[in-house]
Amino acid sequence: MPHTTPAPVPLDSASVRRRNLALVLQHIAAHGPCSRSRIAAAVGLVPASVTGLVADLAARGLVQEEAGGTGGGRGRPGRPVRLAPRRVLAVTVQITLEQLRTQVTDLAGAVMSRADTPHRVRHGGPAPLARAVAAVVREAEDRVRCVPGALLSRVVVAMAGPVTSDASHAVLAATDFGWTAPVDLGALVTAELPFLGCPLEVVNDANAAALAEYQALAADRPRPPLGLAYLKADTGVGGGLVVGGRIVDGSHGAAIEPGHLPVALDGPPCACGARGCLAVYAGPEPLLAAAGLAAALRTDGKDAALAALDRALHAGDPAALAALAAAGEAVGAAILGMVALLDVEEIVLGGYLADWHRWLAPAIDARLAGRRALAAPWMPRLTPSTLGTGATLHGAAALARAAVLDDPGAIPPLSP
């Protein structure tokens, strides 16, 4: 996968040029506007080569010159080059149990439009969900066509459940939708969009969110975390791992699934076939049941029931507080397992683990206290999410953006 495997060293001249195009565009995206001479110095290429590469990128509509020159030297002043972010747009879709969250972003990561659409798809085969996803992608395509000169470069669909690391990006399982065998969701959606004209990729929602949280922390600190693990609960309980700015998803795409990390050997049975998994304590259904809101879940749906639990917590309802305390103890046990296995610098809590951190924190801290006393210098920082519910779409957009920045040669030149 492009976001998990470093690009191979180019060998032939065409591959070298494509790689150099990427180096130049990546520098402009990160540091522009900037002159050609500064680009050449930063990426290690001679100025004449950079001039040709910038001309190539401009012909594809990905960069443009600013009107003013930099001045300060003999001859014609340099003209700074900047990103042209609206040449390529991406559509990202997050699948939750009750709705499809859709976003259109440009090459700079700016959100151009956003829509939330109820899908009303429950347990069963994947075809109805694929049709629902295709419908919101078509609506987003219409919004892309309204932008003059814009090209749809990629569609990224994110959903709960492990996604294979190979080219198929198949969903290995999605227990929230009753999928217990691998599903090639990307192929099903693409079949509904015969005229799409761009790649469509399916990713794990927590992996995308982990990448977004990593990038947010990296942008806000002098040094990015060496490694970041993400643990979230919303539609279900999931997680992701980012090391060196890249998602680590394991041999088959199923790495870092903390929802199925056993925290009690004699605990309740889990849908995965094991017992005592974190999901059976901190997942939305058991948490709502423990808080006395199982009936609200059945009649009003998960989002409405979680909103009722939020109100109960703020009102100091004893059942709600007890449910969060028990969930916090299970989350603390899972964090201990993640610490021992991963040795990351930071663990970010997302979803309602972040929203309700004030009620979860005492039980989590109690679980971690003994380990902190023995190994304080190596214990990770525990941080509530800074991106909230938008983390998954932010991360999916970052993956789409990276695909263009890594291979701008795939973008066709502008029409004459």
UniProtKB/TrEMBL annotation:
Q: Which InterPro entries does the record match to this protein?
A: ATPase_NBD, ROK, WH-like_DNA-bd_sf, WH_DNA-bd_sf
Superkingdom is: Bacteria
Pfam families cross-referenced by the UniProt entry: ROK (PF00480)
Which protein family is it in? Answer: Belongs to the ROK (NagC/XylR) family.
Protein name from the UniProt record: ROK family protein
Source species of the chain: Streptomyces cremeus
